[in-house]
Design brief:
83 residues, mainly alpha, 3 helices
Length: 83
Amino acid sequence: MTMLTCRMADTEATRVREAAETLGLSVSQMIREALRRYLNSVGAEHDVEVYGRMPLRSDELSIMSIQSCLPAEDWSDWADASG
């Protein structure tokens, strides 16, 4: 792991400590989780922007017609197969 440091207002630091304590997390865990969620959110927003500029093509959407990704055959009788 890499250590990062940052400065924040005392009020925000207090909120982080209180939230971590309430959730039973260390302050580091709390900040890591919050940052992970924020980065996921930013990434999702970026994906929306990209999709707006370049929507999926019909060949990419063709997978939507597949009803199930299960095997086409019933393999349940192989559960007791010896190998």
